[in-house]
Amino acid sequence: MTEILKKYIPAQAVQPTFELIKKNNVYLQIVNQRVTRHGDYRKLTNGQHKITVNASSNKYRFFITLIHEVAHLEAFETFGRNIKPHGQEWKHTFQKLMLPFIHPAIFPAQLLPLVAKHFKNPKASSDTDARLALALKYYDPENDKNYIFEIPEGSLFKIYNGRVFKKGAKRVKRYEGIELQSGKMYLFNPNAEVELLKEKG
């Protein structure tokens, strides 16, 4: 297991993360990229805990996702199954688990302060923290995607399923996108990953 973890998370985090997985009886499955989520957790009928995380060559995103899911496991086991998935109990558990890892031996200098700030009040997804999401993206291999908040209003963009939109105005926290084919208007999270299209001219 430590050999597998070395491929996916920062080297200094491997041994303590392995201990965390062992202590919690986790069956860790690394799966192909899913668009809708980075990872998930569920308890199996045999009592074992299954965590799936998207395979990623971005070690920092993979690591934060893995600890996020372990925090779900520990919060449910400690406080019971009726707690909110991303409520106060989960936040406190996530903070407690991450604290030993918020360290320059694990996160690079430009990422460390953003990680530390994020964990003062962790969100349901690191993608909803715009500054952290952008900083993490820097460590993605040759990512040709943009976040929707980065692209100019009026530009055309394509989403994961091939549908093409024109970016509209910002509405409170989200952005309008007019689908070219149907003319329908949709709202997008600012950190939705899209492909910016060059207009034919």
What is the molecular shape?
globular
Helix content: 25-40%
Largest sheet: 6 strands, antiparallel
Q: Spatial order of the strands in the main sheet?
A: 4-9-5-6-7-8
Return the structural class: alpha+beta
Distinct helical segment count: 6
Catalogue the unreliable spans.
none
Query: Separation of termini?
Result: 53 Å
- How many beta-strand runs? 9
Description:
With 201 residues, the chain is α+β, with helices and mostly antiparallel strands. It is 32% helix and 22% strand. The protein is built from six helices and nine strands. It has a six-stranded antiparallel beta sheet with strand order 4-9-5-6-7-8, with no helix packed on it.
Give the SSE map:
Elements: H1 2-8, H2 14-23, E1 26-31, E2 39-43, E3 49-54, H3 59-79, H4 88-98, H5 112-118, H6 130-137, E4 146-147, E5 156-158, E6 164-171, E7 174-179, E8 185-188, E9 193-197
Parallel strand pairs: 1-3
Antiparallel strand pairs: 2-3, 4-9, 5-6, 5-9, 6-7, 7-8
Helix pairs in contact: 3-4
Question: What structural keywords apply?
Answer:
single chain, alpha+beta, six-stranded antiparallel β-sheet, 6 helices, 32% helix
Q: What's the short version?
A:
Helix content is 32%, strand content 22%. It has 201 residues and is an alpha+beta fold.
